[in-house]
């Protein structure tokens, strides 16, 4: 049965589609992005998002540049943002930018920034 609740808060997690990573590696990078952005959010946003059920949407970006552009736009809008760089201990070179976490923030604010991205 579909969930018909309206979520007013969410996180958007964006992973690079141009970096070859296993499914598990992508999941780890997305998790890092979620925690990083959460830690930058204020108490009000965190509480509202947690109380509502912690909606997350995972999207893909085509390039590193796109991640940084999204981060800049989000920060200018007052949305917490966290860029993730890999340590390079497993699959990819050290310092590779892999993912971006945005929010928790109001869903409509995130939609204005990430609405053109495809789901992972």
Number of E-type strands: 5
* CATH hierarchy class name: Alpha Beta
Q: Give me the CATH fold name.
A: Bit1
Query: In the CATH hierarchy, what is the architecture at level 2?
Result: 3-Layer(aba) Sandwich
Could you state the CATH homologous superfamily? Bit1
Share of helical residues:
40-55%
Total domain units: 1
How is the largest sheet built, in terms of strand order?
3-4-1-2-5
N→C terminal distance: 23 Å
Major beta sheet summary: 5 strands, mixed
- Which structural class do the helices and strands define? alpha+beta
Strand content: 25-35%
The poorly predicted ranges are none
GO molecular function, one term: peptidyl-tRNA hydrolase activity
Keywords: Hydrolase
Family: Belongs to the PTH2 family.
Catalytic activity: an N-acyl-L-alpha-aminoacyl-tRNA + H2O = an N-acyl-L-amino acid + a tRNA + H(+)
Verbal overview:
The chain has 120 residues and is an alpha+beta fold. The protein has a single domain (9-119), classed as Bit1 (3-Layer(aba) Sandwich), CATH 3.40.1490.10. It contains four helices and five strands. The protein has helices at 23-40, 43-52, 64-76, 107-114, and strands at residues 9-16, 56-61, 81-85, 97-106, 118-119. It has a five-stranded mixed β-sheet with strand order 3-4-1-2-5.
Features:
120 residues; alpha+beta; Bit1; 5-stranded mixed beta sheet; 4 helices; 41% helix; globular; hydrolase; Peptidyl-tRNA hydrolase; PTH2
